[in-house]
Design goal:
InterPro entries: Thioredoxin-like_sf, Thioredoxin_CS, Thioredoxin_domain, TMX_domain-containing. The protein has 7 helices and 4 strands; from the N terminus they run βααβαββαααα. The longest helix has about 60 residues. The radius of gyration is 49 Å and the shape is elongated.
Length: about 230
Amino acid sequence: MVEFYAPWCPACQNLQPEWEKFAEWGEDLEVNIAKVDVTEQPGLSGRFIITALPTIYHCKDGEFRRYQGARTKTDFINFISDQEWKSIEPVSSWFGPSSFLMSSMSALFQLSMWIRHCHGYLTESVGIPVWGSYAIFALATLFSGLILGLIMVFLADCLCPSKRHRQQQYPYSKKLAPESAQLLKKLDEEQEADEEDLSDDETEDKKVSNRNSSMNAMIWSSSGWFCFLSCEEQ
């Protein structure tokens, strides 16, 4: 049986005499009786998710059950001797003190207590104003978030690289390679033939235009000569 308490809690102070009397029966009942100060053990209180004080747990064979009965010495003794704890459903393994989720919660509780101690040290011992302490923690939070974000992006890029860096693999590329090469060769030959035809047509057009121009020149020259002779005869 474990009791979670805090020295400043009035309900915990009222329970202490009954709990100490119950602890005297520990050897006779063959049960270990202990108590945990949540102000001194924030990690342990985080594992059990202590949200109210005092809180009592029964622990046996790796199973944890929360005691919710009357808080007197007689009720505690009957709870153990009559095995009333068997009627209480144990805490799920997901929320057990040894689970990953509760371990993370314990680390969070410890971090909160560490921040509280640092805040007290900065404001009381160093003499920094309260707003200054808040500003320091805000900057530290932003900096740590930036570092963690960069680390997560780096790991994500290493584990799951983007698709543009991956070469696409086509299962039928080897079979289609010769056929595509032949097709490209045919297209090149056809293009060259078309270019040759165009060049031939252009040369023929030039020859025809040259002939026409020469004929026109001859016609104009002959007409001019005829006009000149007619003028002389007159």
